[in-house]
Design a protein that fits this description.
By secondary structure, the chain is α/β, with parallel strands linked by helices. It contains 17 helices and 13 strands. It has 2 domains: 382 residues, Alpha-Beta Complex (Spore Coat Polysaccharide Biosynthesis Protein SpsA, Chain A), CATH 3.90.550; 48 residues, no CATH class.
Length: 434
């Protein structure tokens, strides 16, 4: 069963087209790659959107080609309750419920639920697809990422060296498995970034300087130029794979091997980037990833055009900026303990990682406060009405964000410490009977 692959779509919107497209990817994996592959849709959208998604799921299930697991909010409540009432966890039931299944927006909790469901299904291979993406089309076919992901996931560096096109990785740990394979997006820039660049390139670069507070301005400008102008992902023509230990892939188009059985991602609410923890810890420990060019097409959904969405999303970015100093500190702690954090058998030491994260909660929040204030001043300089609304919202939310951060970090440490017991409980659940 552990050789099973699952393609997972977490969604809070209507996404009939992506469901159909990624169903076809699962069918492709089954028929062309000879993989045991299923589709998982975790749907926390509103009633109307959920009804449309369910209609598509029902239609596809009738084909009886690919196993589909569908979870609505009631299903999730029942599923999480089965986990947290396990004898190993019941004493922490209320706290775990708030971290695994919180009300509101938590990208990290959404990702963690996909990990748990994959474990319940019996899968060590998880392929994440976001609900505002679809595969590229080429000639009469589609460019499915799983066609490259499955070739490298779980294989050692020694096994894949001759199979990749470019090697930008060097480490004595050539016998450890590849935990992460992924690619990026093609399509339009995020609307707000394009708008900011068109208004003022200086403010655009200034924003990215705040997202990388530990880097010199020249480094940030060069990084942005490479990422957005020079090396922006190109439409697919033929496969190109790179063995790397660096940033690059988007979490909405990546696949994991087993690491999600060992470690969760940050469950904090109302912050972007919380689901990138696996990528970051692999970089910190100089563990290999494979980057492919099977990018997904990213499209903008209608809610992105509203003022409400703009302000909420930008506040999540602000919280991410404030979170960065804590993140820098706990990865610094993890790096200092790297010999104890990960062993050559491919296992992570959760108590030491949890302690490294918890210690980061003890730093003062002056740096985070400064980053919030600098971002608010940057937004104030954009003389467009919605940015003035945002500026006021940042000032109003500054103290609540700062208060939340330390608790968020402590909660993450707690979840890391408990995670292997949580996965143990998940593996005992029959998801067909949730």
């Amino acid at each position: 069963m552990l050789n099973r692959h699952c393609i997972v779509i977490p969604t809070d919107r209507e996404c009939a087209l992506p469901i159909r497209e990624f169903y076809d990817e699962a069918l492709y994996a089954k028929e062309k790659l000879d993989l045991d592959c299923c589709l998982v849709v975790i749907d926390t959208s509103d009633d109307e959107s959920r009804s449309k998604n369910w209609q598509v799921i029902n239609e596809l299930r009738k084909k009886k080609e690919v196993k589909i697991y569908y979870f609505n909010p009631a299903d999730l409540d029942a599923y999480i309750d089965k986990i947290i009432t396990h004898p190993r966890l019941v004493n922490d039931r209320d706290k775990l419920s708030s971290l695994l299944n919180p009300e509101g927006c938590s990208y990290g909790a959404a990702a963690n639920r996909t990990f748990l469901i994959a474990a319940s299904i019996g899968s060590e291979y998880l392929h994440r697809r976001d609900s505002d993406t679809i595969p590229q089309k080429i000639n009469s076919g589609r460019v499915f990422p799983i066609a490259q992901e499955y070739r490298f996931l779980g294989k050692t560096v020694n096994e894949i060296k001759q199979k990749v096109d470019i090697i930008e990785y060097s480490s004595p740990l050539d016998s450890v498995p590849v935990f992460l394979v992924g690619a990026g997006y093609i399509g339009e820039w995020s609307t707000e970034l394009k708008e900011l660049y068109d208004y003022s390139p200086e403010l655009f670069y200034g924003h990215f300087c705040l997202t990388m507070p530990d880097k010199e301005k020249e480094y940030v400008i060069n990084w942005v130029n490479r990422h957005y102008f020079e090396e922006n992902p190109k439409p697919f023509t033929s496969d190109k794979t790179e063995l790397v230990a660096r940033n690059g892939l988007d979490i909405g188009n990546h696949a994991l091997y087993r690491i999600f059985h060992e470690l969760p991602v940050v469950p904090a609410k109302d912050v972007v980037g919380a689901d990138y923890f696996h990528r970051q810890i692999l970089l910190t420990l100089n563990l290999p990833s494979v980057y492919t060019n099977r990018h997904l097409v990213h499209f903008h959904t209608k809610e992105r055009t509203t003022l409400e969405w703009f302000v909420k999303h930008q506040l999540r970015i602000v919280k991410y900026l404030a979170y960065r100093p804590y993140m820098h500190e706990f990865f610094r702690n993890i790096y200092k303990n790297k010999e104890k954090v990960f062993d050559n058998a491919g296992s992570f030491n959760n108590p030491i990682i949890a302690e490294s994260v918890f210690k980061a909660s003890e730093i003062d929040n002056n740096h985070s406060r400064d980053l919030i204030l600098r971002q608010s001043q940057l937004m104030k300089k954009v003389k467009i009405e919605k940015y003035q609304v945002l500026y006021k919202a940042i000032i109003e939310q500054k103290e609540p964000i700062l208060e939340e951060l330390k608790n968020d970090i402590k909660d993450f440490a707690f979840l890391i410490y408990k995670w292997k017991d949580i996965i143990y409980a998940a593996k005992e659940i029959d998801v067909d009977n949730v």
